[in-house]
Amino acid sequence: MPKVVYVDDAGEERAVDASAGESVMSAAVRAGVPGIIGECGGCLSCGTCHVWVREEYLDQVGEVGDMEDDLLDLAVGDRRAGSRLSCQIEVTPQLDGLTVDVPGEQVV
Amino acid sequence: MLRTEINELLTQTGPGTKMGALFRRFWQPVLLAEELPADDCPPVRVKILSERLIAFRDSEGRYGLMDEFCAHRGVSLWFGRNEEGGLRCPYHGWKYDYTGQAIEVPSEPETSNFCANVKLKSYPLVKRGDVLWAYFGDPEAQPPLPEWEFVTVPEGQAFTSKRFQECNWLQALEGGIDSSHVTFLHSGSLDSDPLFKGSKGNAYNRADLKPFFEVVDYEGGLLIAARRSAEEGHYYWRVTPWVLPNFTMVPPRADHPMHGHFWVPIDDENCWAWSFDYHPTRQLDSEEVAAMKAGLGVHSANDENYRPLANKDNDYLMDRDAQRRGETYSGIKGIALQDSSLQESMGPIVDRTKERLVATDAGIIKARQKLRKAALALAENGVEPAGNRAQDQKVRSVAVVLPADQSFVDGIGEAMIAKPGVPQTTV
Question: What is the ipTM metric for this complex?
């Protein structure tokens, strides 16, 4: 099973066994990772699953979608180069070890 | 949810604000033509985009829109004498022409050149359809006159009203691009309002509580399409155009006149909800006009200042029995007041950091982003916004039933383009 590593704002790492095909958001919600809410369940309307993808993985997680781009502009606290909505990143075997930083707060 | 600074960016439209600068790139409806009905009629106070202005019609029928206050010592020119080609301040007789130029300062010596140097801030004000339109921006960037179909159809085919709404313009606009609420809030009115009833779409509207939204870029704004289930293998699509910054149209029902709105900021806590009805190919009949004047359809029954008779001071004449019986879903009578009662209840400027958006809010998210980008592009790079070209404004709403496997963009073809003499596409 591919692992996804979530790092909180204190630097604490938490590795979650994820299933290929699920999203980085749903793996986090299932495992109870604090800070990833996923309120809308992946419908692209809330922006509460924001993460910063570590630079070394950025070219492997696909492009930011159109609606995702809007939500990152409008609804997240600190958009950076690695900002993604984790509901839009699909876990694959190749992504094993994917590391993302989780904001201290999803809403500002 | 929306970040605080973006909520402020989008909701503040006074002088010096970025969204205010965006609004000042567009002709905006300012008065109904009936408010200045005759040459030398009484002047009318106008507050728009947080500016206080006075409008008048001079002895030759020219419309003037200028600073409300006399340049001398700040008296309101609403008290002025509108006579012999200008508006005269009643305090010391200073007189201004329709461009705001002082043309007489009677206390000064004959030889004085003083009044040539006094000019009030003024804006062009022109009649188009039943509406007086003004442009508040850089004269160099003044766009062509409005081409909206409701002001270009032959006389007798359109009816326009306005109502005072006590909330920020954006929460009013957001109601106009949110088809989802129709299924709930307006469900009681769809089959009783004479300007809505008799459409097959009403049944689809009421039956499907979970419309799917698809939003696409279109010319000067967006097409916001709400898809609901129809007969087996078919979908009912309601397509709402939004054109920057504040024009929306309601998808049509049967052969009723089509309707839409402008949401015009008065200041940051109030707006004018302009409501228009028109039929692209025929005269409005006397029953339709009577219903519109009575405040049915998208219109409202108002006092002499265009404030609805049902307003927040009387709890919008809430009728709990009608709510219980399901005659009206919210207990408020009339589609227009059903909307404005709830939008006003959110407070003058709703705190969008606290909202919880859902999938049916896709049009709202897209419109906010487009407004934000347009305001920033204008402020930072001087990029002129879309929405002023004739093709941006020659737009219509559409209601249509399509096979389930057909995209709405393919299915509507050119139905959203307003073409003279061509009827609307409606269900």
Answer: 0.89
